[in-house]
Every structure is written in structure tokens, then in C-alpha cells.
Write a structure and sequence with these properties.
Layout: H1 9-22, H2 26-42, H3 63-75
Helix pairs in contact: 1-2
């Protein structure tokens, strides 16, 4: 299928590099890059939230007051 698309410079360069390395057509290079991206997209890693102590406790029941307090400290 013939389709016109605009490629960003980095994508075009990657396709040209692959084209030269594998001695394939530009279209085949774009297709291989697209397939590799589509396959990688299916791979997911489990997200792990890392937290650290910031040295003070925040009462989340009074968020507005806490934000105001932090803002006051920032301005000082």
C-alpha cells in the first residue's frame, strides 16, 4: 500500500541507517522500525513508586494550609 507520511529527521535518519546497514529499501527499513516499535510497545514493566523521607510530616486533612505554609517558606 502506498501512503504518504512526514517523518521527523531522527526517524528518517534511523531508517536511512537501517537501509544502508541491511541493504534494503527505505520502505522496508521504515516497516522494520515500525514493527520493532509496535512489538516493544506491548512490553510493559511494573511501575514501582519509590518514596523518601523529606524530613517533615504533612497533615493531608489540611492541604490548603500546608500548601500555604510551604509557599510562605519558599518566599522567605
Amino acid at each position: 500500500m502506498d501512503t504518504a507520511v512526514r517523518l521527523d529527521d531522527d526517524v528518517r535518519k534511523a531508517a536511512e541507517r537501517l537501509q544502508q546497514e541491511k541493504h534494503i529499501s527505505f520502505s522496508d527499513a521504515v516497516n522494520q522500525l515500525a514493527r520493532a516499535g509496535a512489538e516493544k510497545r506491548g512490553e510493559t514493566r511494573r511501575f514501582v513508586q519509590r518514596s523518601r523521607s523529606v524530613g517533615f510530616a504533612v497533615d493531608v486533612t489540611r492541604v490548603a494550609e500546608t500548601l500555604e505554609s510551604l509557599d510562605d517558606e519558599h518566599r522567605a
